[in-house]
Amino acid sequence: MGKSNQITEGVIWKQLLVYFFPLLLGSFFQQLYNTVDAVIVGRFVGPVALAAVGGSSAMVVQLFVEFFVGISAGASVTIAQLYGAKDGERVSRAVHTAMAVAVLGGIAFMVICLTAAPWAIRLLKTPENIVDSSVLYLRIFFCGMVPNLVYNMGAAILRAVGDSRRPLYVLIISCVVNIILDVLFVVVMKMGVPGAALATIVSQTVSAWIVIRILSRSADVYKLHLRQIRLHRDMFSRIIRLGLPTGIEGSLYMISNFMVQASINRFGTNIVSAWAAYGKLDAVYWMVLQALGISVTTFVGQNFGAGKYGRIRRSVGAGLLMALIFALGMTFTLFGFGKYLFMLFTADHEVAAAGVDMMRYLVRFYAIYVCVEIFSAALRGMGDTLPPMLIIFFGTCVLRIVWLLLVFPHLHTIHAIEAVYPVTWSVTSVIMVIYYFTRRRRWMKTAG
Question: How far is CA 10 from CA 76, 218, 403, in A?
Fold first, then answer.
């Protein structure tokens, strides 16, 4: 920790870009990683297999992963604040506790999903011809949850100390492995849906092994010693206190999306396939926006630990501007050229037409959510996690459920389901902006 820390000392907008661009590329490769299964299965197996990989099963996967990403965010904020404060001994304890959480969490998630997969798939009102394939995909996928969570936690640790490049390199390697194995298992060996799931497990195991090697060979205070992986009570308490609200936030968000998926499932296999394919394109926006959020959280966290409050405000402003530019660019790109991208997923013209219609309706509202992501990320970096969770819970999740229960039954159209997104994004954004500026005035006064 003797070298200059550019996050707490460098030119903010330049260092934010230096930190963000590897995350941006990482978001691209993460989405490519997630999309390859859908593209290959959709093109070489068919719409039913595409719906099985990208429909209800994808929602269940996201529920668990989003919860753990929230927990890893708690570890990231903890490590970022301690690293910014140059408290090496507690950084080490936090790193080893975080890895113990990843291993134990992966085992718990695997057991839960192997048992509850059929129930979860049927709860989403999945079309009967997709149920068996969806359950099989889930059960195979969740056998690889330990390496999945170990990679995610390892990447969170590296990003917390300002290293966004090596997680990108690991992700690229994992993505290449996944593509090669998808072609081998699905196209060459004709393994179908199980082949796609198996390819994902192997590639995740590779990424977990590499990130452990990186941490184990570090010469900095965040060096990982495998024999020292254990739960330190003080660090575990801090990680859970900061991460649990974010994990619950992500899970509640996904539960509300479960209801959306259940409503979509009522329209049949073609619409489910179209929604699944659009979801892969839509996820590019959310992955990049999340990368910006991670950047802001890291910058705010380290500068908060260093007591540099003016840099916090400037970091948030720079992140907000970047997010707005990206959101508008994504809107224009998908609205104008998305139909060509959509044809990567399916040769069925009815499925493609339905998907393009969904896409053009929703991408117009992308910029609305920017304030929610950036301001909640800044608040998390300061250790303020519960209020943003409650804002998103009521403004997005509860309102979304209310809409689906009270409005959708009277209209019963695809656009009536889609409208739930811009409505809830708008409400949540307004509340988040009000809370953030109220909170910022308080800590600026405290800072003197």
Answer: 21, 23, 46
CB atoms within 10 A of CB 239: 25
pLDDT tens profile 57-68: 877 887 888 788
Q: Find the distance separating the first CA and the last CA of the chain, reported in whole Å.
A: 28
Q: Rounded to the nearest 5°, which phi and psi values hold at 290?
A: -65, -35
- CA 38, 326, 263, 354 torsion: positive or negative? negative
97 neighbors 237 (Cβ within 8 angstroms): no
Number of C-beta neighbours around residue 97 at 10 A = 26
Residue recorded with tokens 């890291």: 298
**Total Cβ atoms within 10 A of residue 168:** 22
Amino acid identity, position 231? L
CB 36 within 8 A of CB 280: no
Q: Record the tokens describing residue 11, joined without a space.
A: 């030119």
What are the Cα distances from residue 302, in Å, to 102, 196, 216?
23, 39, 23
CA dist 436 and 376 (Å) reads 8
Average pLDDT estimate for 346-353: 80
What pTM does this model have?
0.75
The region, left, alpha or beta by phi > 0 then psi within -120 to 50, assigned to residue 24 is alpha
Q: Express each pLDDT in 8-27 by its tens digit.
A: 676 777 777 777 778 777 77
Q: What is the 3-state secondary structure (H, E, C) of the chain?
A: CCCCCHHHHCCHHHHHHHHHHHHHHHHHHHHHHHHHHHHHHHHHCCHHHHHHHHCHHHHHHHHHHHHHHHHHHHHHHHHHHHHHCCCHHHHHHHHHHHHHHHHHHHHHHHHHHHHHHHHHHHHCCCCHHHHHHHHHHHHHHHCCHHHHHHHHHHHHHHHHCCCCHHHHHHHHHHHHHHHHHHHHHHHHCCCHHHHHHHHHHHHHHHHHHHHHHHHHCCCCCCCCCHHHCCCCHHHHHHHHHHHHHHHHHHHHHHHHHHHHHHHHHCCCHHHHHHHHHHHHHHHHHHHHHHHHHHHHHHHHHHHHHCCCHHHHHHHHHHHHHHHHHHHHHHHHHHHHHHHHHHCCCCCCHHHHHHHHHHHHHHHHHHHHHHHHHHHHHHHHHCCCCHHHHHHHHHHHHHHHHHHHHHCHHHHCCHHHHHCHHHHHHHHHHHHHHHHHHHHHHHHHHHHC
Specify the residue for token string 């978001």: 27
For residue 217, pLDDT over 60 is answered with yes
